[in-house]
Amino acid sequence: MNPKKILCFILFCTLPFASFSQKDSTYIKEGFTFGLLPAISYSADLGFQYGGLTNLYWYGDGSNYPDYNHSLYLEYSEYTAGSTLMRLYYDSPVIIPGIRTTADITYFRDLAMDFYGFNGRDAVYNQDWEDDSSPHYKSSVFYRHHREMFRIMTNFKGHLNTNKPEWEWMAGLVYFDFTIGSVDIDRLNKRKDDDEKLPEIDGIYDKYLDWNIIDEDEAEGGRHAYLKLGLSYDTRDITANATKGIWTELFVAHMPSFLSSQTDSYTRLNLFHRQYFALNKSRNLTFVYRIGYQHKLSGTIPFYLLPHMSTSILTSATSQGLGGSKTLRGINRNRIVGNGSLLTNLEFRWKMWRTKLFKQDFYLGTNYFADMGLITQDYKIDKSMVPADEYDLYFNDTNDRPHISYGMGLKAALNENFVLSADYGIAVSKQDGTSGLYITLNYLF
Q1: Which terminus in the chain has less CB density within 10 A, N or C?
Q2: pTM for the predicted model, two decimal places
Q3: Cα 4 to Cα 413: distance, rounded to the nearest angstrom
């Protein structure tokens, strides 16, 4: 089957759409377009997804294409692992003249949120405890806990100097409401046959509570709002998939105690640097990389906010790591958690075939990547109550070393901005998992 027929089939199955008031040009779009997807996908983190989503774009007179004037993303979906996601995300560079505005409202219930402990390799991960074919099996949700998250996020970006548009200021307010608890075994077992039911045992979250590693004041979640201020340097040629330029953001996020259900405040530094290189004249082959750094400056961060990463634009429902579809592909979600961390992604991207179908621009692409993460600042915990006969099963008492994964992916894009993505990553160390398949939207960065 030739490439055009393959792409037609993919688009017929997954990308129904409508379009109005557009020029008959391969690379210029006017007016309104939208992409529809049945939210039928698979993630190694969450299982099979089913539901629906849409992304609506308004290009206006097309003068900003491939960038848009307004984008509205809506999604409702559920996952076989028990999660529910409802999300509304709005992004516009023009609704407030001179200021890029984004707003997000998300509810995400995860019946089996990954939790492996703290400080990377200091926390032992035993795959056999999750493998029901192993004689050492405990439970497939041993390294999990229940988490419900409600989030409201706003971000604003504007130019510091109109003569130097690459420099921008950033500001935002983020509100979280978390409900945390043990995995609801009875609820999960309702979906299973008798021979598949999960055993009624304590998971690692319950053990950390018993050992007072997780503070009782944080154990059930809480409500928090934090402010963020920062600077951005952005010379990308295309927002959705740049072929050249630099995009660097420096944030300071501060959660004052009066905006939190906890008694402590905290301040955290976030730095993300991304760079894009075109490797040929047609710019269909690029090399890109991202470096992310987080460091706690003061205070105490609740354990369930440790994986959270501050950012100016969300390309998915969550911004967290390290591990999983948006940080370290192939490594278990949230495997690497601490007060401070370093993240590196290296990626070659190839737009291997481009065409025009139904007066829309399409391309097929592929990417080849290597990801790395490392804890640079430990989350201080008290291990004094851990029983001596269990200590070595859960802790290594070692400094962290790089966690590495590698893999490849496939991309199918509509009008540059609506990108259907599939990535498959492989973890180098068994302490980090085995592999992961992620079918989502958008490039990683």
Answers
A1: N
A2: 0.85
A3: 14
